Every structure is written in structure tokens, then in C-alpha cells.
Amino acid sequence: MRAVHFGAGNIGRGFIGAVLQDAGYFVTFADVNKELIAKLRSSNGYSLFELGEAQKETHYENFEVLDSTADEAALIAAIGRADVITASVGTNILPAIAPVISRGIQSRSSDSPLVIMACENAINATDILWSKILETLERLPKNIFFANTAVDRIVPMQQADGEPDVAAESFCEWVIDKSGLAGTDLKIPAATMVDDLQPFIERKLYTVNTAHLTIAYLGQRHGHDTIAESLRDPTVRDVVARVMEETSMALVTKHDFDSNEHAKYVHRTLLRLANPLLDDQVERVGRQPLRKLSRFERLIGPAALLAELGEEPSALLEVVEASLDFMSQNDPEVALLNSKLGALTPSEFALEVCGISPEHQLAGSLERAIAKHQGALSHK
Known about the structure:
Blueprint: E1 2-6, H1 10-22, E2 26-31, H2 34-42, E3 46-50, E4 56-60, E5 63-67, H3 72-81, E6 84-87, H4 94-106, E7 114-118, H5 125-136, E8 144-146, E9 149-152, E10 166-168, E11 173-177, E12 191-194, H6 198-221, H7 227-231, H8 234-255, H9 259-273, H10 282-285, H11 289-292, H12 300-308, H13 314-324, H14 332-343, H15 346-352, H16 363-378
Parallel strand pairs: 1-2, 1-6, 2-5, 3-10, 6-7, 7-8, 11-12
Antiparallel strand pairs: 3-4, 9-11
Helix pairs in contact: 3-4, 4-5, 6-8, 6-9, 6-13, 8-12, 8-13, 13-16, 15-16
């Protein structure tokens, strides 16, 4: 079995690529980071260090790494032979890898199934890749399948001299929507196959990612540099607890989750985030605030759900306010966010950035939160 994985970074090596190799796949990593490519090529594989109660080291050698630009012909050939194509490059990069995947599909001489999956922290990310691939193909050959996924593994900031080895938490979850696979067996024992992915995507995004982001934004607001440091602050912990109450209400109501089982899921999530071995910088966790304020992302998504239920998402809106204060000199989205805050009215900002129209149940309270921030800025 052969797989091509776009993105040889920490998630690629420490999660998706590792799970595929564990399942017996030979993995072709495709990346553009020449320094990382050189390290992987010159080393005798890499090790994954799992940071749990019982720490574990696994060594991986069943792979090759290609430069997506310099080795395009070899990459196209690898796609032509692949059974699975996966990607963990960021949703904004997915359109950029679609053309080479299309050329690889066109090079295929076999009718054997090929399953393509984007493994990103976003809802239905594979659909983005699917639509871009279709733009470059006159027709899609038979036995080419696309599956949306939900992925969950915390990979913290790595040691500066650690590459190509990678450290990650022991827990991982890869949920795959099998509804469009026509019975194709991916032979990935660690993955969970489901007929309806939406509940799993939203459960993960509105619990794990929302909690992580809450810690980051509230932590920075209260002068903390890391997630672990932030969680030692009772004020931050209080907001996280209230946010989890709100997202739990929305998720249990929408998806009819068992409330006790969901409470256990939340508890396990908070224990994972509190693991000192997984500590991370609040600035790194909070980056790309514009994307994270979009309509179906980890703040506005659950806040809108709660508002539609007739409830006030006060804790989530407190995090939204903190997101508008987020600072990072190395993140271009922060400058763009501040530009929009200075140029748009609260209603315009809510619609353009958050996707909330004036008629939506969340509009009033969201616009007040935005106006409060703009008012504070005007008095500085």
C-alpha cells in the first residue's frame, strides 16, 4: 500500500504520516521546506516521541520525501501509484496542491481506488481540495474518491534542534467520512469510519480547539506567555469552564449527544490541554485570528448555535473580545484584523469577518462586543 502525504511538518510526521506507516503504508512526503527535506533525507528515519503518562518512542523509516517543486515529476509518479493521498498543509494552501494532484490523477494507469483526504482543523476541508481538482480536470476518472475527515492530536512547539524527530501527545483521533467511498477499505486500523462526520467535526472543533483558543486569547490578555502558565490563572480557568458549558449545551442539543459522555469528553480534553509536556506559546495557538473568527470556526460557530437556541453566549463573546486584542508581530492576519476594525462598523465587521448578518440571533450581542472593543481603542 502506498500513500502520498502533503506536508512533512510536525503534524505530517507526528500524526497522519505516522498512522499511515503504522498501518503498513509506504508514505511519500511532499513538502517545500528544503531544510526539513534535507534533514529527512540525510537521517536514518525519524522518531515520534509520545508525551503521555507512559512516554513512548516509535522510529519510522517506511517513507521518502520529495520537494514539491523540484521533484514534481517524481511526485506525479508517486500520486499515480498511490492508494491514498492526504494533506496537512493548512486550508489556505490546499488550492495550491490541487494542480499537481490533478496531474498525478491523469497519470494513473490503474483503475484501483484512490482516496483523497485533507486532514485539517477545518470543517469539510476535503471539499476545498475536491473543488479545486475538478477545476483542472475535464472529468474525474472512476474510482477516485474524496472523504472529509476530523483529526485531533496536539503537537506542541518542538525543540529547536529536534528535527526530524517530533514530539506529540499520545492521544490521537482520525475520523473519516466513509459515505462516499463506495465500500473502499482504507485499511487504517487507527482511523474511525463513520457515515456522518458533522457531529465529530463540530465536537472536536467546538471543544478541543475552542478551549485551546480560549486559553490562548484570555492568557495573552492577562499577561501570560504559554498555555500552561495561562491555565494556572483562576480567571482564565473560569472563562474556559464557562465556555465549555456553552459549547456543550450547543453540541448536546444539536447532535443529541449523551450529556454524561460529552462531559467526560470535555474533562479529558481539559486534562490533555493541561499536560505540561504539551505546553505551547499563546501567540502560536492564537495565530490567524481572522480565520478563527469566521462563521463556522471555533468561536462564532458555537456562539451562533447557542444564539439560535435562544441562549446568550456570554463567555464565548468574552473570548471574541479577547481575540480582537490579540497581538503578534509575525502574523499578517493581526494587522489585517486591526485594519478592518478601524475601517468597518460593528455590523459590517460582523458580516464580513464573522459571517453574521444583521438578522441573525447573534448579531446584536456580537456587534456590541465589537463596538465595545472599538470604543476602547478610540480612547487609548
